[in-house]
Amino acid sequence: MKTKPHTPALLAALLTMAAAGSASADSADGGAPDYTAMSPQALAEYLIFEAGGFDLDAPTQEGGTARDRMVQDEIQQICTELKLSGKPLDRATAARISALADESMKYPEKGIALGDWKKGEQIARSGYGFRIGHRNDDHAAEEPGGNCYACHQLDPNEVAYGTVGPSLAGYGSLRGTSDAMLKHTYDILYNAHLYFPCTNMPRFGYHGTLTEQQISDVMAYLLAPDSPVNQQPPATAER
Amino acid sequence: MVIRHLLLSFALAAICAGPVLSNELRAPEEVLSDLIEKNESSYLTQSEQNIMMMPDNAALWLADEGKALFYEQRGPNNVSLETCDLGKGPGVLEGAYVELPRYFADTGRVMDLESRLVYCLTTIQGFADDDPTVSTRHGSSSDMMKLQTFIAAQSSGYAWNPPMEHPLEKAMRDAGEVLFYRRAGTSDFSCGTCHAATGKRIRASVLPDINRPEEWTKAISWPAYRVGQQNVRSSQHRVRGCYWQMRQPESIAGSDAAIALMSYWTDAARGQPSILPDKKR
Hints:
The complex is a heterodimer.
Chain A: H1 8-20, H2 40-49, H3 66-70, H4 74-85, H5 91-104, H6 117-125, H7 148-151, H8 171-175, H9 179-191, H10 204-207, H11 212-223
Chain B: H1 2-15, H2 28-38, H3 48-52, H4 58-71, E1 102-104, E2 109-111, H5 113-123, H6 132-135, H7 143-153, H8 167-181, H9 191-195, E3 201-202, E4 205-206, H10 213-219, E5 224-226, E6 231-233, H11 235-245, H12 256-267, E7 278-280
Helix pairs in contact in B: 4-7, 8-12
């Protein structure tokens, strides 16, 4: 359904065209452009940013406003277009995405190390943080989490886990704790598009939704040999 | 995608090919058990308790209260809502909700149930926009939820069938599809992250798949009594909730963005019977 990539310039051109255009089908709030003359992408952008679809002026926890949350970066834009096109990921797009991810990477000054798995477990279980709108999450009252369990199995004894992402039960015992594995795991938490272009996985490091310390704590939960993630489930789990 | 959709709706409209669209009122629990029988879906079957308790759905009482409100002479103009045109003519309620959102010539807009009801309350009964009857949108005690639940229940068992004849209806539906798959925000989510594959779970909740109309019909069957919230909730309440979970800005009720999204999600359930009112976790 999509033929041209939409750029802000193209969007601006379309909007100007539509606003100045002769055929205005939508007379209800005068000045509104003719929706039927716009591409679905251009109309969607218009509905978000110009037509009062969202409370864009609300403040966000990271500073700035809700509007910033709706502005797509290039990875979000490319992955949206890919999904809408219904096409499989081609090599050129995959290369572009992982190049963008590569550019975004930042590593801890003191090197990548495992933190405290107990803190990592709390982060993995908590879905708090960064919600805005009718109820704002207050980061001063509660530390944001990573909500890993929403999508992944981790501790094999936890039954309430999601399946949108792959199971990570036994993650460390299957992979070990070599420097290469630490870096690989860090990269995935920071920006997983490096290895999995257009993955569903949020970019926790890139967006700053988890701090450097929190990432190392979650890494410990995944990799430390004494973490519950890496224990066998008891034969008779009482749940 | 658009082309395929056009062909499909054309074929359905022209020769009524494929499954015969059901168009008789049926009790919600009957519709649901029929769907479960005909389809393999862990989403449809996920909460057995809810299924068993469907006939006791508190939303059914709300529908009764909504009925009384609908026919009562109210507002500054002291008239009932019997002249409210929900798309099938003044006062025609049966089967009206499954054909929303739709284009209305009197406003020049595509409107969903909530925005059309606001239009009727303000233009026919003369309520001001800030009168609680109009402005209170959420909660079982609100007039909005009572009226929406009553009106929607007059479509239970009818197949979703939003019209796509007017160019604005198609434009809104297509923009809604873009909105559904548009990734943004600090979590990089779109609706499609969670609702475009079958049998996936978030924690313990099985997610409905927009590509399976027989699942998606239950997903969009609102108003529904939400057991966890002990309130009857609307489509817009669900839209707002999912944007909130996605860490994206608050969706504004009655906005064209919200209506476009609902145009797409209703189109995605086309042909499957609605479950109204529903009961959900």
